[in-house]
Design a protein that fits this description.
Largest sheet: 10 strands, antiparallel
Number of strands: 23
Strand content: 15-25%
Number of domains: 4
Mean pLDDT: 95
Distance between the termini: 53 Å
Low-confidence stretches: none
Number of helices: 12
Structural class: alpha+beta
């Protein structure tokens, strides 16, 4: 769409999240054909990936990676930064090309994990959720009905609607009354942070709206404000202070989480509320994000304002629509059409239907949309003219056997919460909808179905431009190397070899990969060599040399030998720290089998990007007082001492 607008004289800006680029194309030398500027946007400022730390984001400006302009100790938060950048882009455009219209695709990190917000906003919600998620559901539904968001007669659906043979235990909701006092305190606090995160983002976006009013642009600006799915269940039944545990298949521990309760929402946590709040915040529907079969995973509010083009003020529209309808709506508002052929390539027809007619419609006029299919992670459903067929299948379970799934049928025109299954009363209607789903899924290339587990998906190696090998060498003074294309030590034995010359008072990071929520780092502090493996932010496993490092040339090394798998698949083994060919420290070590991060905090030599690996130093922890020649990470069968001798020979040639 941006290319169409751009070709027709519009300035185009993208702020925030871009989750449309293959993770193997995120590095400095990667193919950038899928990056925003190559997709028709004049400017981009944000992060490329599924999520990012709000205090230490993985930022990209236009076509290159950058570090945040300042840190959380000076008040940095991504929501504020994005609003600042949006205002600047609009101002720049109106100063230089005031006659041109503009389009802005604004996708904040909120309210996606990690839930992080300023302390003063979190404090505003203290005690607001102490009654629990069941009480919240019963409180919020009547308010939604009163405001006309839901029709009268809408009823609550049950907790845990999935049958036992399909249910994913990680998505279960624990009854509030069954929780301990500490669990209730923790769960309430997690939701307080989420509410603060939401409000803070609204306030920052409000600054952009205020700027439009101040500069006389608001009246003729169309603003569409929406979320992209239901509330998220990645926090598991117990909540999490580090969402990365979910993506490593490792459970949270209540005692560990309670230690951080006063830090929730700050830089030291990467949190997510439990599934109980995910279900409650998707009231009155069943389930939550990832469940495309139920409305709890897909139904979202959409607010549209256009003072010059919409006469109605503060009215509700009940016409059924989907996210795919936004692009056709924008094109119709702009007086443009989707071309059948673009730059010599025949285009696939737009899936959506314009919503512009609804601006002048009455609240309950018929919708002009007639069919919409849903599919995600093995879940699926189909809507047609007020009826909805639902396959009873949970995501991320690896159960397969999709042909054996039970289907449910709902008349959602009169039963918005999908509370009454009419499959037995209307078998012919159900069969027709099941056939329609297959037709639509085939037409929209949604097959084959895939319900593999999180760990199966994340640990599957993606195709890359570089062939996989056992040894990777990295150099200082470069951008971070994204995890998707960096050496993978997940579930493996590995060695780190670094050639370093120390001159005077050397200190800082030699090698770092990841963040405080999962990572490892080799660094010099107080004239000693350190290696830290930070296992999912739970503990920093540390090896320290006993000898003092004097000026000279050194080969530093770390060897981890995996000996067994732990109860949750984690690697357990022995780590040894070396200076030249001498072992200077050793100890047992536990290592992750999943990723260090979903996005950002890549592999660095001579510095540490974003969030620091260890509490022993502050980012960026740049190496000084010497020179780093290179760092090699080896996952092959070679012995450490053989690699050390090879590195030493390389040093002697310099």
């Amino acid at each position: 769409m941006a290319q169409i607008l751009n070709d027709n004289g519009w300035s185009t800006f993208w702020l925030g999240k871009d989750h449309n680029v293959p993770e193997t194309d995120l590095s400095a030398g990667a193919n950038k054909s899928q990056w925003p500027l190559q997709q028709g946007y004049d400017r981009f400022y944000g992060f490329i990936g599924g999520e990012t730390n709000q205090f230490y984001p993985d930022l990209t400006e236009d076509n290159h990676a950058i570090e945040a302009p300042y840190g959380p100790e000076k008040g940095y938060h991504l929501s504020k930064d994005l609003a600042d950048q949006a205002i600047k882009m609009i101002g720049d455009q109106k100063s230089a090309n005031p006659s041109k219209p503009w389009f802005m695709w604004y996708c904040p990190g909120a309210n996606h994990a990690p839930h992080q917000a300023p302390k003063e906003y979190i404090a505003k919600y203290k005690g607001k959720f102490d009654d629990g998620y069941d009480a919240y559901r019963k409180w919020v539904l009547p308010r939604m009905i009163e405001k006309g968001i839901l029709p009268k007669g809408t009823t609550l659906t049950e907790w845990n609607p999935m049958p036992k043979d399909q249910a994913n235990p990680a998505d279960a909701v624990r009854p509030w009354e069954s929780l301990s006092a500490d669990e209730k305190k923790l769960f309430s606090r997690l939701c307080e942070v989420y509410a603060a995160f939401s409000e803070y983002t609204d306030v920052e976006i409000g600054r952009i709206v205020d700027y439009l009013k101040k500069t006389g642009q608001y009246e003729n600006t169309v603003i569409m404000y929406a979320s992209d799915n239901g509330a998220s269940g990645e926090g598991t039944p117990n909540g999490s202070v580090n969402e990365n545990k979910f993506f490593n298949g490792f459970p949270d521990d209540l005692a560990e989480n309670m230690k951080l309760i006063d830090e929730l929402g700050g830089p030291n946590t990467y949190e997510h509320y439990p599934t109980g709040w995910a279900a409650a915040l998707s009231t009155p529907f069943k389930m939550f994000k990832r469940y495309s079969n139920y409305a709890g995973g897909t139904d979202c509010p959409l607010t549209i304002t256009w003072p010059k083009g919409i006469k109605a003020r503060g009215e509700v529209r009940n016409q059924y629509h989907h996210a795919v309808d936004i692009v056709p709506t924008i094109l119709e508002i702009c007086g443009l059409e989707m071309p059948k052929v673009y730059r010599g390539v025949e285009q696939y027809p737009l899936s959506g239907v314009s919503m512009k007619y609804s601006f002048d419609a009455k609240p309950n006029d018929p919708t002009q949309k007639h069919v919409q299919y849903f599919s995600m992670l093995g879940t699926r459903a189909i809507w047609q003219d007020g009826w909805k067929a639902v396959a009873v299948h949970a995501p991320l379970t690896d159960k397969g056997h999709f042909d054996q799934d039970k289907w449910e049928l709902y008349h959602v025109d009169v039963d918005r919460s999908e509370s009454k299954d009419l499959a037995k009363q209307n078998p012919e209607k159900l069969e027709a909808l099941k056939k329609l789903w297959l037709d639509e899924a085939t037409k929209n290339q949604a097959l084959p179905l895939d319900d593999r587990t999180t760990m199966q998906i994340i640990t599957t190696e993606r195709p890359t431009e570089e062939k996989e090998k056992d040894s990777y060498t990295y150099y200082p003074h470069t951008s971070q190397v994204p995890e998707a294309v960096a050496v993978s030590v997940r579930g493996k034995s590995f060695k780190i070899i670094a050639n370093v010359e120390i001159k005077t008072d050397a200190k800082g990071v030699v090698f770092a990969h990841g963040s405080r929520f999962g990572s490892h780092s080799l660094f010099i502090k107080d004239h000693k060599l350190y290696y830290v493996y930070n296992f999912l932010g739970i503990k920093e496993q540390q090896l320290v040399s006993t000898e003092t490092l004097k000026p000279g040339k050194y080969t530093f090394g770390l060897e981890f030998t995996k000996e067994k798998a732990g109860a949750h698949g984690e690697s357990i083994g022995t780590a040894k720290l070396y200076i030249n060919d001498k072992e200077v420290a050793a100890g047992s070590m536990t290592a992750q089998v999943g990723k260090f991060t979903l996005v950002g905090d890549g592999l660095c030599v001579g510095w540490d990007s974003g969030d620091p690996v260890s509490k022993q130093y502050n980012s960026p922890g740049e190496f000084e007082g010497g020179d780093i020649s290179f760092v090699t990470v080896n996952t092959g069968k070679e012995q450490y001492l053989d690699l050390e001798r090879e590195a030493a020979r390389a040093f002697s040639k310099e």
